[in-house]
Design goal:
By secondary structure, the chain is mainly beta. The chain has three helices and eleven strands.
């Protein structure tokens, strides 16, 4: 079951949607990514279909967010900053391996951005009205599970319920290929019913981790970047790049 499109306006003084091809210094994409947009929505309200508790993992109660379109109101400008960061050697599902040092990194981030996120809720149960009403109520009151942020936690954003919001229609350009989102199916398939696994490797010895979905060719038409069509009932695994 798919809901009608929901629009939320988000804005903030700074944003950093990190490009994965830059390993040392952080360089932001010129626009918000679909995964960052989904993270903002999940910060407001999230009830996952799959749950980490063993006795609840296989029930299908809950819903998933699907980002349909992203509207650009203000593109923002690129500005360089120097930040102190903790050095994370690596991250696995067992936790962080934290290095005993802090590092200074140059970052190229966005300043003064504003977007319109159009998304839909997908659920397999008959509580669509409840979920949509809860999202609207929480957004209008400014309530959230944790503060939404624009790419990095140190760049929080404001949000509001905006069913009639529209982007800047004068923006018609291509931003190139950007990161879309992760597919977590491999992780859930490896997670047994009994308990959280201690070994995150498959039979061939390769580390099990979320796999990136095909990149999105971000082309803005009248300010809108189409991410996907109306979601299908397959949990969104087969997403065709635009």
């Amino acid at each position: 079951m798919i809901s009608d499109p929901i629009r939320i306006r988000v804005w903030g003084p700074y944003a950093c949607f990190t490009r994965p091809e830059f390993h040392v210094e952080r360089v932001s994409y010129p626009i918000i990514t679909p995964s960052a947009a989904r993270g903002i929505l999940e910060a407001i309200l999230m009830k996952p279909v799959e749950k980490p508790e063993a006795h609840k993992r296989r029930d299908k109660e809950g819903f998933r967010w699907h980002v349909l379109r992203m509207g650009i109101v203000h593109e923002g400008t690129m500005v360089p900053v120097l930040r102190n960061e903790l050095g994370y050697e690596k991250h696995t599902f067992a936790g962080y391996d934290i290095m005993e040092e802090r590092t200074q990194r140059h970052s190229l981030i966005l300043r003064d951005v504003e977007y319109v996120i159009e998304a839909a809720i997908e659920t397999s149960e008959g509580n669509m009205g409840k979920y949509c009403g809860c999202v609207e109520r929480r957004t209008k009151k400014g309530q959230c599970h944790h503060r939404p942020y624009l790419g990095c936690r140190e760049f929080p954003c404001d949000f509001e319920w905006a069913p009639g919001a529209v982007p800047n229609e004068s923006i018609n350009k291509s931003y190139g290929f950007i990161f879309r989102d992760f597919d977590f199916e491999a992780v859930w398939d490896h997670w047994p019913d009994e308990q959280r696994p201690n070994v995150w490797r498959d039979k061939t010895g390769r580390t099990i981790s979320p796999q990136p979905l095909p990149a999105l060719n971000a082309v803005a038409v009248n300010g809108w970047i189409k991410v996907r069509e109306t979601p299908r009932e397959d949990r969104g695994k087969d997403v065709k790049p635009q």
